[in-house]
Amino acid sequence: MNQTLEWVYQVLLHRAYLQGSRYYETAESFLFFLYRFIGGCDNPATHSRFYPLLKERVMEWIGTEGDGLALAMRLIVCKFTDVKNDIDLQTLRGLQREDGGWDTGLIYKYGSSGLSIRNRGLTTVMAIHAIQRSNFASSSL
Q1: Using an 8 Å Cβ cutoff, are 74 and 31 in contact?
Q2: What percentage of the chain reaches a pLDDT higher than 70?
Q3: Got the DSSP string for 52-106?
Q4: Is 140 helix (H, G, I), strand (E, B) or coil?
Q5: Alpha carbon of 140 to those of 5, 27, 40, 79: distances in Å?
């Protein structure tokens, strides 16, 4: 486990996730899944090692392009790391369609074929979750 954690830390440290991976094309996927790991980790040493660098890395992505799912993931990680991100919040809101949903976001791709897996429902749920969390933070001040 220690070697795996070290590898993940090195990926984060050296920004090796920027071009995505064979299966996860967006940097936000890596940052989001790392947030999920840290958020559920009850090891204070692991949390204190990863949290500051995760916060720094997600701040670097504020305002960059992304589909609705990438923006939602980014906003959720920003909320977790206490980073204010009104830029991406406004962009995400602007992507909402007349029917209330968001266009499909890229979730996963098959490495050998490059076939992209996209889902409008997941993108919409994640976008709503990100907006609600952001609005809750703003309204509770």
Answers
A1: yes
A2: 96
A3: HHHHHHHHHHTT----HHHHHHHHHHHHHTT---HHHHHHHHHT--TTS----EE
A4: coil
A5: 35, 30, 24, 14
E strand or H helix that includes residue 16: none
Tokens of 66: 């992304």
- Coil vs helix vs strand at 55: helix
Q: How far apart are CA 130 and CA 92, in angstroms?
A: 9
Output the pTM of the full model. Answer: 0.90
Question: For residue 25, what is the DSSP state?
Answer: -
Query: How confident is the model over 85-94, as pLDDT tens digits?
Result: 999 999 999 9
Residue 132, token pair as written in the block = 């609600």
Residue pair 130/112 in contact by the 8 Å Cβ criterion: no
Over the stretch 13-38, which tens digit does the pLDDT of each residue have? 999 989 877 778 899 999 999 999 99
Residue 102 near residue 120, CB atoms below 8 Å: yes
CB 85 within 8 A of CB 96: no
CB 68 within 8 A of CB 103: yes
